[in-house]
Design a protein that fits this description.
With 149 residues, the chain is mainly α. It is built from 4 helices and no strands.
Length: 149
């Protein structure tokens, strides 16, 4: 059993090695083809007149810039799509805040009186301590909304 296990592991490793070697050979072949194309273009460029060499160089640069431009347009489209998604999320969150505020508007009169007293205290503390204020945990969403507004 132990020898069979080792043999199976060895065969798996051999298979992985052969697949990796095949992938590397394909990569080398592709690089050779690309190198041959570049070499032919270089040789053709050498045979051209100086004006034609400049024109050829300009064509190469135009092609490169066009490809770069397409990549940037694709990136812009992705960013615009993401922006739309974020705007939709913002609308959803704003709706939730409004719903929460509506539910808070239905609290008893005593709570409203307490909120008015707290607002007065906040105004007084702003003058004394600049930037520090006291609030209850359940009032945090309302406070955040007011800060954003």
């Amino acid at each position: 059993p132990f020898l069979r296990l080792l043999e199976a592991q060895l065969q798996d490793q051999r298979r992985e090695y052969e697949e990796e070697v095949e992938a590397l050979k394909n990569q080398v072949d592709a690089m050779k083809e690309e190198m041959e194309k570049q070499q032919q273009a270089f040789l053709q460029n050498l045979q051209l007149s100086p004006e034609a060499q400049v024109e050829f160089g300009l064509q190469q640069e135009i092609t490169r810039l066009t490809n770069e431009n397409l990549d940037l347009k694709e990136l812009l489209e992705k960013l615009e799509k993401n922006e739309k998604k974020l705007k939709k999320q913002l609308k959803i969150y704003m709706k939730k805040v409004q719903d929460f505020e509506a539910s808070q508007a239905m609290v008893p009169a005593e709570r409203r009186r307490h909120e008015r007293n707290m607002q007065v205290a906040v105004q007084r503390k702003e003058k004394d301590f600049q930037g520090m204020l006291e609030y209850y945990k359940e009032d945090e969403p309302l406070l955040i909304r007011n800060l954003i507004t």
